[in-house]
UniProtKB/TrEMBL annotation, chains A, B:
This is GntR family transcriptional regulator. The keyword DNA repair does not apply. Keywords: DNA-binding, Transcription, Transcription regulation. PROSITE patterns: HTH_GNTR.
Length: 216, 216
DNA sequence: ATCGCCTGTTTGTGATCACAAACGCTGTAT
DNA sequence: ATACAGCGTTTGTGATCACAAACAGGCGAT
């Protein structure tokens, strides 16, 4: 490269910026299932060449966030029913464990932050903002699980969210929500009571609830 | 590239060959923790340029098989005790579930194949072949879990094996084994009896046993 | 002897290019 | 109208290059 326009983006490596931007889009359901991407297209959008675009794509394919066709083309995955159920089962396996590990460290300040996040969900519902709804929903879970001090486990949970991202947007577009999730209130109640058993149950229910209406 | 030597390797894309070769090495514990790799070195070893080497590296970093330093250098990770315990906890969470799902489909032919794999472990122990031991051990588990018909869950389990690979070689070099793992026999007995509860318990024990002697 | 600097080398990053395969559109034959 | 062949275009792949940051080794000052 001959000309560096350093002033445009202050952050680090180009391939990493592209990766994070795409990852956020996918996880928050801003890209529909089956949507095709091209390396040159990604590069042009972020003002970089094909090389960083390719690396970001590879990384996302490795995480299951993108599907790689036999000819090398990448697209967001269209999940089968079996795959969706499997990913929901993984959530039901991992997230109660994360919640249980976070429970002894969940002080009042954390619970208040969770309640704040949960209240902001209503605004997203009112505005029919599916992406915003997903983002706040995940922020609720991540805020809790961060307290588990289990980075590998949290990374695995995030990988699952990532794989479900595009499909989730279709789901939340389908159902007509009028109220914030009931299970989140149960989670908060269990946290306040320090009740591990009902906490794990509430988290498990929250992780598996949405998928039932995904039956195509 | 001007000259193509097509006759050398009949398999597919170069970056994929490099990826699979490195992945196998790491998973089977053939690379010690903390070992540094260079893109040019990888490229030279496989007769390719830096580009496919970089892509293979990125992919392995995304799976947690390689550690990426702040300066972009890659090396096999040196896991902390907390990280090892966390990965073992993940195995203890995922693998009993996989075994339970495989149980109703585990016919006699499968059990015999598992017994065969298990018997071949003895040869590896006699030859002090740590890598061969790990490979057969994983083959035992993968053969069983394949029957679970849960590809996403299996992929997640393999990712964990991958992260533990380099550390495992250090472990198996440390202990002086004389017999094949006792838990594998328990797993086989539970499979024959169709006893899900004791199967899950045996798998859980097998997943967590090795790590206790890893306390640095 | 130890610390700091300085320089030559190694290494990752990103752009560019040549190439082959896949794609998609158009026109033609049935 | 449909199916198929032909062809220009799009797209991923891998090699190569320029560049900057990181590294390592030695030299000199204190």
């Amino acid at each position: 490269m001959l000309i560096h326009s350093k002033a445009t983006e202050p952050t680090g490596a180009a391939h990493d910026r592209v990766y994070r931007a795409l990852r956020a889009r996918i996880m928050h359901g801003e890209i529909h299932p089956g949507q095709a991407l091209t390396l040159r297209g990604i590069g042009k959008e972020f003002g970089v060449s094909m090389t960083p675009a390719r690396e970001a794509g590879r990384r996302l394919v490795a995480e299951g966030a993108l599907f790689l066709s036999s000819s090398g083309r990448v697209s967001t995955p269209e999940l089968s029913n079996e795959r969706i159920e499997e990913l929901a089962a993984l959530r039901a396996l991992l997230e109660p464990e994360l919640a249980a590990r976070a429970l002894p460290r969940a002080h009042m300040a954390l619970i208040e932050r969770l309640e704040d996040i949960n209240n902001r969900v209503s605004g997203m519902i009112a505005r029919q903002d599916a992406s915003g709804y997903i983002r706040l929903n995940l922020e609720f879970h991540r805020t809790l699980y961060l307290r588990a001090q289990a980075p590998a486990m949290l990374a695995m949970a995030e990988t699952i969210w990532l794989q479900l991202g595009p499909t989730m947007s279709k789901l939340y577009g389908r159902l007509r929500r009028t109220e914030p999730p009931r299970n989140h209130k149960l989670i908060l109640a269990a946290l306040k009571a320090g009740d591990e058993a009902s906490l794990k149950l509430a988290v498990r229910s929250d992780a598996t609830q949405g998928l039932r209406m995904l039956k195509v």
